[in-house]
Amino acid sequence: MAKFKISLNMEFCRAADKSFEGGVKLASELGYRWVEPMVHTGWELLSEVNYFHSFSMEEDPLLMKEICDRYGVRVSSLSAHSPLMKPEAAVARLTRAAVLASFVGCNFLNSDEMTKPAWMDDAVAHDTMRYTLTRAAQVCARHKKYLCLEPHGIYTKTAAGLLKIANLVKSPWIQVNWDTGNSYLAGIEDPYEGLQKVRDRVFHIHAKDISLAHSSKERGKVTGTPVGCACGEGVVDWKRVAKIMEPVNREIFLSVECGKIDEAGRSLAFLKKELKKWLA
């Protein structure tokens, strides 16, 4: 039976202008023992002045682990979202994230296809993504890290489109990160039926709930959203999600994606109670 561990995506502190270390400290104080950091290449201005939580992969790779150890927190996965149709950016970010994952002791990198350049047609887009994913899969295989693709963009807004991209490269290291909120907001297919279709490939879940107000405003008009509301305060049926995943015999991280610090605290309390039967 599938068992879940609860983690916290570091986006919870973006609106609070917190640094990476500040966010980790807050996560620890809220009771989280796992976090999903965002990573980037180069030197991002707001991160350098401690106003943004993203972690630069130009830093010593052991620095992230050192900071997390300081607050009794471990890394569950890396938010390494990269534009798969722009390999000059995505290859470096994904391959370096796989190496960083080896240093911090996590097994999962999360991404989606991101945006499609206006000049690309569908055939060129998928050929380009195949190249990017081939390069990434080679490094992921060496480091034994899973690159998990999520529903978020124009191609991954359906289960069939998501699986098409995940199958562009035949590699056991390319799997699925199911985003409960994005799949709902796309409004094209029933999100629970979509999860059922991809269940065997789901190695990671973004626990994103969507408020009724958010749903009313954007469902069917967008393919995803950065963050949701507190888990348990929106439209997602969390027990139904857990029951769909039950036949999968592995531990899966539920990485909470909310936009406020207090929402992160309420999400943890809710998931611990609601999914007690399924927690590892």
Short recap of the structure:
With 280 residues, the chain is α/β, with parallel strands linked by helices. The protein has helices spanning 20-30, 45-48, 61-70, 87-104, 122-143, 159-166, 180-186, 191-198, 212-218, 238-245, 261-274, and strands at residues 3-9, 34-36, 39-40, 55-56, 74-75, 78-79, 108-111, 146-149, 174-179, 202-207, 251-256. The model has no long low-confidence stretch (mean pLDDT 98).
CATH class: Alpha Beta
- How far apart are the termini? 10 Å
What's the total number of strands? 11
Mean pLDDT: 98
As a whole number of angstroms, the C-alpha radius of gyration is 17 Å
Helix residue percentage: 40-55%
The ordered H/E elements are EHEEHEHEEHEHEHEHHEHHEH
SS content category:
alpha/beta
* Strand portion: 15-25%
Tally of individual domains: 1
Question: What would CATH call the architecture?
Answer: Alpha-Beta Barrel
CATH topology: TIM Barrel
The largest sheet is: 9 strands, parallel
Main sheet: which strands, in order across? Answer: 5-2-1-11-10-9-8-7-6
Runs with pLDDT <50, length 5+?
A: none
Number of helices: 11
Shape annotation: globular
Q: CATH superfamily name?
A: Divalent-metal-dependent TIM barrel enzymes
Word description of this protein:
The structure is a single chain. This protein is an alpha/beta fold and 280 residues long. The chain has one domain: TIM Barrel, CATH 3.20.20.150. The protein is built from 11 helices and 11 strands. It has helices at residues 20-30, 45-48, 61-70, 87-104, 122-143, 159-166, 180-186, 191-198, 212-218, 238-245, 261-274, and strands spanning 3-9, 34-36, 39-40, 55-56, 74-75, 78-79, 108-111, 146-149, 174-179, 202-207, 251-256. Strands 5-2-1-11-10-9-8-7-6 form a 9-stranded parallel sheet. α2 (45-48) links the parallel β3 and β4 (55-56). α4 packs parallel to α5 (122-143) and α6 (159-166) packs parallel to α8 (191-198). The chain is globular, with a radius of gyration of 17 Å. The N and C termini lie close together (10 Å).
